[in-house]
Design goal:
35% of the residues are buried. Helices cover 74% and strands 0% of the residues. The protein has 11 helices and no strands. The chain folds into 2 domains: 51 residues; 225 residues, MetI-like (MetI-like fold), CATH 1.10.3720.10. With 286 residues, the protein is mainly alpha-helical.
Length: 286
């Protein structure tokens, strides 16, 4: 007769082999975790050491200076905020509506699967391709760089992130909620807006915050669209300063004071992205 205790016996060779394999895989997993954390903390420590000393009130109150003159990053910070806000306002409604269609109205037919496939392609597309696209269809047409062009490029990067999060969160809403509302006579649009959105709003907001975190540090699309501006300007129809491009240009310059500003800007973006990710985690947990 088969004895179940023989399977888990310490003297069983099958059990000992599985135990050794389990320890091996656990050790490899811990080693991979420590390897990743090592580089992460090294990057953060390097940013703090090289850029922490340049953080000051001047950094937030003065514009980018010429070589040899003390200055700050006010114009770059303002430009990044303006373009990020405009891109979020443009991309978020499109992403939420597209995700709503996929989860609530596109359950049959070929359109929803095709849209999900194309959204995944756009989600993984290099950001420089998006910048070249906006340059070809907008910048080359109007004949100049502008903050609007930069915002359009960033908005295209926002859309697939919001589409994916909205689609996934709405699919997690139990169908029993929809059926109960339908039994009370609610039309489909009211079920979506009054029940599904409320049930999935924390997940949708998480997707929006993650999209903002992604576009906050994008450099390549802005090189082909917004370019840069050495002066403080809120004119969205002209070249506009932004933190990623300023960091890129100042880090490669031969001037030490510009290098310090580049490190300080990198610290600001890192803290911003870290704060947004923490906020996104808090929304998701709630």
């Amino acid at each position: 007769m088969f004895d179940p205790r023989s399977v888990v016996s310490l003297s069983n060779p099958v059990y000992r082999r599985r135990q050794r394999f389990n320890r091996l895989m656990l050790s490899l997993s811990v080693a991979a975790l420590l390897f990743g954390l090592f580089w992460l903390f090294w990057i953060i420590l390097t940013l703090i050491v090289k850029g922490g000393g340049a953080l000051s009130l001047t950094l937030l109150t003065e514009s980018t200076p010429p070589p040899g003159v003390t200055g700050g990053l006010l114009n770059a910070i303002l430009g990044s905020i303006l373009m990020t806000v405009v891109a979020t306002l443009l991309g978020t409604p499109v992403g939420i509506l597209a995700g709503t269609f996929l989860a609530e109205y596109g359950k049959r037919g070929w359109l929803a699967p095709a849209t999900r496939f194309l959204n995944d392609v756009l989600l993984s597309a290099p950001s420089i391709v998006i910048g070249l696209f906006i340059y070809a269809v907008y910048v080359a047409y109007v004949g100049h760089y502008s903050g609007w062009a930069g915002s359009l490029a960033l908005a295209i990067l926002v859309i697939p992130v919001v589409v994916r999060s909205t689609d996934n969160m709405l699919l997690l809403v139990p169908n029993s909620l929809r059926e109960a509302a339908a039994a009370l006579g609610c039309p489909q649009w009211r079920i979506v807006t009054m029940i599904c959105y409320r049930a999935a709003r924390s997940g949708i907001m998480t997707g929006v915050l993650l999209a903002i975190a992604r576009i906050s540090g994008e450099t390549a699309p802005l090189l082909f669209t917004a370019l840069n501006n050495q002066f403080l300007s809120a004119n969205m129809n002209a070249p506009m300063a932004n933190l990623p491009v300023v960091i890129f240009q100042y880090a490669a310059s031969p001037f030490e004071d510009w290098n310090r500003l580049a490190w300080a800007g990198a610290v600001l973006i890192t803290l911003l992205v870290l704060g947004i990710n923490i906020a996104a985690r808090a929304f998701f947990r709630k």
